[in-house]
Each structure stands twice: as C-alpha cells, then as structure tokens.
Amino acid sequence: MATLADISSVRSLKGFVEIENLSVCFRRKGHTVQVLDSINLQIHPGEFTCLLGPSGCGKSTILNAIAGFIKPTSGCIFVDKKQVSTPGADRGFVFQQYSLLPWKTTFQNIEFGLKIQGVPKSKRQELVNDFLNQVGLYKHRHSYPYQLSGGMQQRASIVRALVNSPSVLLMDEPFAALDAQTRQMMRELLLTIWNNFQTTVIFVTHDIEEAVFLSDKIFVMGFNPGNIKAKIDVSLERPRHTDSLLSPEFVKLNRQIFELIREETLKSMELD
C-alpha cells in the first residue's frame, strides 16, 4: 500500500479535466429546458478551481456531469484523456449534505471504499488512521455521525473521498450548512489538505469570498442557459489565511467578480 507521500506524488501528475461543448437539457413538465449551453473549459492537474454563479445557473449540473451522475445532451468530458461515461473511483465527490452512513463509525465510513476495493485490513487501518490524524479526527474514529459536529462530519466526508486516491475531488457547496466561523476554519483546513496532496479540486459555490479565498482559477457562470461568462485567474499568494481576506488584492477581486455576478442575478430576477 502506498504511503501518503506516494499518493501525493502520483496525484500531482493526474487530474487533467477537459470539457468540450457540453450542453445539458432536462425535461420538466413536458417541456425541454436547456440547463447548460456549450461549456468549454480546461482544468490542469493540481489546480483548485471554483465554479461560481447565481442559483440555477448550472454549477452543480457541470459537477454531476464530470462525476458521471448525469449524461450530457451533447459534448464530451475527459479526465486524464479518458472520456467520462459513468461514475468512477478517479473522481471523488463531497456533497453539501453530510453523506456519512449513520450506522458506521467514522473509521468504518472512511475505510468503506478501501474495503470494497479489497485492500487488506492492516493496510486500511494504517492509511485511514494517517488521514484521521491529518484532519484531527483520530480520537473520534469510533464515534458515529450523530455524535459529531457538522464540521467534523464534513471533515470525515472529505477524508472518505480522498482516501481512495481520486485524480479529481468534486465538491458541491460542502460548507454551506456550517456557521460562519466553522466555515472559515473548514476553508483553511481544506487548503492545508489540498496543499499536502495537490489533488485537482473543482469546487461549486455561490459565495464570492469563498471562491477567491480558495481558488487558483474561477469560472464565473452566466444564466439561462448556463454558460461560462468569464475566467478569473487568482494570483493571491499562498498559503492563505484569514488575514488574506483584508488584502487590497482580495478586495479588488471580490469587487470585480461581484459586478459580474450582479449582472447575472439581475437577469434571473427579470425572468421570474
């Protein structure tokens, strides 16, 4: 079984995501609704990328298409040059709602994927305990989800996705249900984990501050149907901490993106 250092080295070479002319339509009440229109983007190995936009613009639909949960109406998605057609272990997913199995302990939840893969028990214990130590959950390894705070449950969910060594980690507003203080602590913890493993992360959010704080690159989405309105490169120095939120560069980026999002939000209100 590879060590955490070995996993980090391999991941840094994987996780190249390409989306070519992706369009998605759904049937609603007997009518066809186009949710996404001709999405084209590239995300390079090890990048932290955010999809940002108003509610209903199709952010989560892109994430679900990359995961293989929904099929494109047209266009293609590739991960490391392999076309996505179904869900796969190369793509880990962290949902907004805590998705731990309530009848399993923290340790059992995290080892579940490894167990299915047939990883020997001793190796599972070694790897899972290493991850639990990294996120401060080792002493809670025998606790059940109901015994954990929201932040602890989401840490366990992130670790459960990472322990299977995915090339890409997909995150759908994972901190939205947390209070403001816990949310900021989770952002900083996520950046620490990402810095250690350099896994490609695609993170959906409607929070501008969150996107700027986390990202190397932000795709701002337009509305009706969903499209890529702008690509913003975030060159803020890393590592980032709470003080980064007060820097002039951070404030400038927030203001720039706010104006882009405001245009799309006004459009959505006019359509209601």
TrEMBL record:
Looking at the record's lineage, which domain of life comes first? Bacteria
Work out whether the entry's keyword set contains ATP-binding: yes
Q: Which GO terms describe its cellular component?
A: plasma membrane
- Keyword annotations: ATP-binding, Nucleotide-binding, Transport
- Pfam families xref list: ABC_tran
Q: Main localization of the protein?
A: membrane
Q: Which residues form a coiled coil?
A: none
Keyword Nucleotide-binding assigned = yes
Which Gene3D superfamilies does the protein's record reference? P-loop containing nucleotide triphosphate hydrolases
Task: Tell me which InterPro entries the record gives.
Answer: AAA+_ATPase, ABC_transporter-like_ATP-bd, ABC_transporter-like_CS, ABC_transporter_ATP-bind, P-loop_NTPase
Where in or outside the cell it occurs: the entry states: Cell inner membrane
Cross-referenced SUPFAM superfamilies, in alphabetical order? P-loop containing nucleoside triphosphate hydrolases (SSF52540)
| CDD domains xrefs | ABC_NrtD_SsuB_transporters
User: Membrane topology for this entry?
Assistant: Peripheral membrane protein
Domain annotation ABC transporter: ranges: 17-248
Q: Name one GO molecular function term.
A: ATP hydrolysis activity
| Family assignment from sequence similarity | Belongs to the ABC transporter superfamily. Nitrate/nitrite/cyanate uptake transporter (NitT) (TC 3.A.1.16) family.
UniProt-listed PANTHER family: ALIPHATIC SULFONATES IMPORT ATP-BINDING PROTEIN SSUB, TAURINE IMPORT ATP-BINDING PROTEIN-RELATED
Could you tell me what this protein is called? Answer: ABC transporter ATP-binding protein
